[in-house]
Backbone:
């Protein structure tokens, strides 16, 4: 079967089964706060706790409402952006529900592959393909990364020899998109997956991600709605800048905050 001229690799249907952790209500409610507290504790211990305490004492609480509003705005825009991509791969959910699941998935975002929690939640809630949800999330994050890089260029150009780093990141983004969407290049990637122990059993899911990514990149709205990624990136940079202003006013410019991200 082909879709918009694209030959699908997997010719059979099989869903990605997710465990019934939803039946353990107490465990489901306990995991997010525990993971969140563990992540905060790890971050505090990774830096100087004494310096962290000094920064907290100097924190300007007058900026706290603005910090909360901008950071929540970031996740709302992220959910809206993802909603349109999910629709394009056949997963139809209310925008409000996608935004709420985006917020819920942040509990594990600091863990390895933690961002995939969002895809798991959406696939389970919509009864849709896990690979389709991952494809939409992958496109969203790659375009977000690219826009974030554009915001960082002014700060990067002030750093000696930074141009090489910019080129490397751009080539990385282009390479990932090409490897997953350009069929001749994907055949080599598919062959590598099929020969690799442990992950070769996920070949069907990899095929689904490839199929949906290819379809997404051919949709005019994928690039057309990229201004939402720009708003999302600006919100994240602004959150860091506002926190820096609350701790040490004037020490970090907005351009340098973009560079940090």
Residues:
């Amino acid at each position: 079967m082909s879709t918009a001229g694209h030959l699908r690799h997997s010719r059979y249907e099989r869903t990605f089964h997710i465990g019934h952790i939803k039946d353990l209500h107490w465990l489901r409610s306990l995991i997010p706060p525990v993971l969140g507290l563990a992540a905060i504790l790890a971050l505090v211990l990774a830096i100087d706790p004494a310096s962290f305490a000094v920064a907290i004492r100097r924190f300007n609480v007058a900026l706290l409402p603005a910090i909360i509003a901008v950071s929540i705005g970031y996740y709302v825009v992220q959910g809206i952006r993802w909603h349109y991509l999910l629709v394009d791969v056949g997963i139809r959910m209310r925008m409000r529900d996608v935004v709420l699941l985006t917020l819920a998935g942040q509990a594990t975002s600091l863990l390895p592959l933690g961002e995939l929690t969002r895809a798991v939640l959406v696939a389970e809630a919509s009864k849709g393909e896990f690979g389709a949800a991952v494809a939409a999330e992958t496109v969203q994050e790659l375009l977000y990364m690219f826009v974030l890089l554009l915001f960082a260029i002014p700060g990067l150009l002030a750093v000696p020899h930074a141009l090489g780093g910019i080129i490397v990141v751009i080539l990385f983004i282009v390479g990932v998109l090409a490897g997953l969407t350009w069929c001749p290049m994907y055949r080599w990637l598919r062959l590598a997956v099929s020969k690799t122990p442990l992950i070769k059993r996920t070949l069907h899911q990899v095929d689904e991600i490839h199929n949906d990514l290819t379809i997404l990149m051919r949709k005019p709205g994928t690039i057309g709605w990229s201004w939402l990624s720009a708003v999302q990136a600006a919100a994240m940079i602004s959150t860091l800048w506002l926190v820096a202003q609350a701790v040490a006013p004037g020490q970090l410019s907005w351009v340098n905050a973009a560079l940090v991200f």
About this structure: Strands lie at 2-3, 6-7.
